[in-house]
Amino acid sequence: MKNLFIWFFLSVSNFIFAQSKVLINNNLNIVEDTLKRKKITDVLSQYILDKSVPNKDLTIINPKNKLETWLFLDELRNQQNSKIFTTKYTLMYEVISAETTDKSNYTIYLNCYFEDEKIKHSVAKIQIGVQEINNKFLISSTLKKAINNWKSKTLENYTFYSEKIIDEKKLKNFIAKNNQISLNLNEQKLPTKVYCVDGFLNAYKLLGIDYRTGESNIENFLLGIDFATDSSQSAFIVATQNGKFESFSFGSLWKARINKKYPQNNFYLPVAEGYSYINDGDPFYKWEQIWIHFKNTYSASQKTDWLSLYGHKENFSLASTSLYLENILNAIIVRKIEKEKGFNSVLELLTCGKFNREDHDNYFKTLERVSGITKSNFNEKIDELITAENKNNQ
Fold first, then answer.
1. Fewest CB atoms within 10 Å of the CB: 221, 238, 245, 303?
2. For residue range 344-359, what is the model confidence (pLDDT) as tens digits?
3. Which neighbouring-strand residues pair with 179?
4. What is the 3-state secondary structure (H, E, C) of the chain?
């Protein structure tokens, strides 16, 4: 067993956003060499505080753990950019301890916190790896150290990592769906690592961010899936209820992929949700169940003015498991467009602009171009699509 040296910082070192630098108590000896200590603190400061540099331009990341470290940094930025920490409080970071197994590899432990009326509230405990390579200090996520005893399974160009044994059929289902999305988005299929985690908090913890329950906003992971990719590889974290893919949803994967690809101001959410609906991507209902809810709410015997309802976000399900009218109308529209024109036309509608309850001009202009459906014939065409869908669901 390697010797493990641990330094505890009884007085802490603060990383402060307003000053964008690291303040180190010189009596706290992270390492004996003061120049080396300064390099470590400088690289930590740059990594944590410099929010303006895109991941791909950060030269201080260890290339061996690049994608996992990007995922860590993405989540760190999500927390830093959340409304409460950009308007009301300042997030701060203090080094609480450090450890190493040799003179070149360090794990730094930090407390992420904010102060309210001089009371310190911890948001998360954070781990960051620092490696000295060729006299340069590089940062990495501690994820790979955390999965030393995990199981792994390689299928095609995918490698899955999990604490539990996962049914191979479910892994193949993930591969098929992810490959189909890549095809639809005109992206190449890349070698992919998939980390299967039991729950949201464990997903963050695996990255090196251990959130304190009750003190933080833990909604940043997009419906259980996040990923990072470069030109040659991808890495996914899939957080389900048990880490075994039983609760994996196509919708989580689909929305994670398209949210990374398209700017939010060009992204038309009802089309994205509609495509998720028809592919059983809703987290609560299969498509057949969604359609039953829809038929029970909007009776075929009663004429409905779909155009006048569009944009009001009517919920035709329970308040706790919302299903919106715009989403289901776009679901049957997207089915028609994909069948007749192909997925590139679906993408054109998907990227027609941000959904606006008051202004649908861009949407209807694009809809007419890719489907022939206009404002003047909207009700008629929707009725036709509903009739066709009813036949398919008989």
1. 303
2. 999 999 999 999 988 9
3. none
4. CCCCEEEEEEEEEEEECCCCEEECCCCCCCCCCHHHHHHHHHHHHHHHHCCCCCHHHCCCECHHHHHHHHHHHHHHHHHHCCHHHHHCCCCEEEEEEEEECCCCEEEEEEEEEEEECCEEEEEEEEEEEEEEECCEEEEECCHHHHCCCCEEEEECCEEEEECCCCCHHHHHHHHHHHHHHHHHCCCCCCCEEEEEEECHHHHHHHHCEEECCCCCCCCCCHHHEEEEECCCCEEEEEEECCCCCCCCCHHHHHHHHHHHHCCHHHCCHHHHHHHHHHCCCCCCCCHHHHHHHHHHHCCCCCCCCHHHHCCCCCECCCHHHCCEHHHHHHHHHHHHHHHHHCHHHHHHHHCCCCCCCCCCHHHHHHHHHHHCCCCCCHHHHHHHHHHHHHHHCC
Name the residue type at position 252. Answer: S
C-alpha closest to that of 140 among 241, 247, 47: 47
In whole angstroms, give the CA distance from residue 356 to residue 141: 39
| Residue 226 contacts residue 234 (beta carbons within 8 Å) | no
Q: How many CB atoms within 10 Å of residue 105?
A: 16
User: What type of residue is 27?
Assistant: N
Q: What pLDDT, on the 0 to 100 scale, is given for residue 23? A: 39
- In the numeric block, which tokens belong to residue 268? 């038309």
pLDDT-derived band of residue 316, with 50, 70 and 90 as boundaries?
A: very high
Please report, rounded to a whole number, the percentage of residues in the chain having pLDDT higher than 70: 88
Residue type, 40: I
Contacting residues for 359 by C-beta, under 8 A, at least 6 apart? none
pLDDT in tens, 5-33: 333 332 344 444 433 334 344 434 556 67
Whether pTM > 0.90 for this model: the answer is no
